[in-house]
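Predict fold of Peptidase A22B, signal peptide peptidase; 196 aa.
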Amino acid sequence: VPFFGAVSYLTLAVCPFCIVSAVLWAVYRRMPYAWIGQDVLGIALIVTVIQIVRIPNLKVGSVLLGCSFLYDIFWVFISKMLFHESVMIVVARGDNTDEDGVPMLLKIPRMFDPWGGYSIIGFGDILLPGLLVAFALRYDWAARKTLQSGYFLWSMVAYGSGSSDNLRRLESHGWSRPTGSSLHRALHAWNFHITR
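Predicted 3D structure, encoded as tokens:
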């Protein structure tokens, strides 16, 4: 293909669908059901990043999660004290811009909310732990480990328990900590367990 070089047949077959999806979302982004297109585009971006970016070892993954944990705490909680609103939430939603921003989050309408709100999760809360889970899967494949003896299953269990903890807090208390902090705690516990 001119200007692009070698391109697989799969890429050529999927490209029109991708272009149509992006154009439809751009045209209908102000409609109440636009969250579906936004989430499809967001999930595609997340999957692409996890396929391209590779963590070289567990130490790098642990440092990345630890730093992102501190980053979450500062921009969600401390920035609220400094700037009178959570900078992380404002940026993720694409608020306070004169132009249409592309929100960096997945959102799903709350089904039984009388005010019609949305549940949201930022891309970083999926991407960063997802990179560590992808590393565990690649390691298991390289070491020829089974699902039961490898690390992928347990990293998924840690990720699921962190997400469940966050949802439980949201439902029982009406608030939650940043999703990343629950996920980081769970995945760091897993890291500590496997590196002992």
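The chain has a mean pLDDT of 79.
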